[in-house]
């Protein structure tokens, strides 16, 4: 049985960063990837906008991934592609990871694991669209795969449901390829994608955005012929009498991402219902000792730069992992905060600067983020505005504050004005 200090599962931007970081910190590392090539979803993201934070350059997805892939291979880190993890068992001598690939079945032993399994797209059935089951209903990622990698245009006239970033980018991409995008329809009263994508992908190409609208039904036998669109109320319920039929040959869904955490659940890792990812501490270790999580498996990021950042942190801490008794206290998020990561502080380790990522629940103007320890505000930071699609991060030095095993840490937002 091959033995490794760290096994990283997932070869996208988070997994690559984690493996490189673990290797730099002296750990014998193995990266496991189910696809034939490393790079994850970035392989098909030919648009630019990647790397602005990390490299201060505007790169395409493949260019961004290539920098990490080159560094990964230069370091000589072990990798298994076209390899699936079928089972993981935690035993006294470490984690037994069962793998299957073209060479058969094997088991490797790891002292620590990094779960960098990314996320998946929500489908039509998960957003309760009624009707028949014709071809022509795609997730935005699938449409992107057809267009960018296979060179096949999946539609001539389409409707896009959801204003997530991939959907916005595909609205522009399909328009450039000659397809007609009838409109982007969003059930929420505000857009779900980054502001820059609203302007660069919709406004610049005169593609209409309809807020508080959703697709309620699809029509067609073999191929989609039309969709039914309705306005929604403040609880996103369709309003009777507002239905309209829009003819199209494709419906493209950009209705959210779900972190892939089936492996984490099988190992007893506790998941946060807000993020759908593992509950973790400041070292990105989950509730199961020796298992770390990063990237979009931990929580959905809007920038790949932050995905890589979390991968590096998880890889470094996995490399230095040693079994010990953890003393943790909760770091709760409340009020207008949608979520905050990490959800716990490790008193053994989180005695210095910790990066906290958070999102607001709604659009806010003139607000103040408060850190409270046992009900007392110890840190405040003002923001001119907060937007749910745009994740924020704040570095906090928790060693400055009197935190004990019985303490309660809480992040809250005081709102002084609404948008």
Topology (SSEs and partners):
Layout: E1 2-9, H1 13-24, E2 29-32, H2 61-75, E3 78-80, E4 84-91, E5 94-101, E6 104-115, E7 119-121, E8 130-131, E9 137-139, H3 140-149, E10 157-161, H4 165-176, E11 180-186, H5 195-202, E12 209-211, E13 213-219, E14 226-231, E15 244-247, E16 250-253, E17 257-259, H6 262-266, E18 291-293, H7 304-319, E19 328-333, E20 337-341, E21 344-346, E22 353-360, E23 364-373, E24 376-386, E25 392-397, E26 409-418
Parallel strand pairs: 1-2, 1-6, 2-3, 6-18, 8-13, 9-16, 10-11, 10-16, 11-12, 19-26
Antiparallel strand pairs: 4-5, 5-6, 7-17, 13-14, 14-15, 19-21, 20-22, 22-25, 23-24, 23-26
DSSP strand content: 35-45%
**Rg of Cα set:** 22 Å
Distance between the termini: 59 Å
How many beta-strand runs?
Answer: 26
Helix content: 10-25%
The oligomeric status of these chains comes to single chain
**Structural class label:** alpha/beta
Low-confidence stretches: none
| Average pLDDT over all residues | 94
**Alpha plus pi helix count:** 7
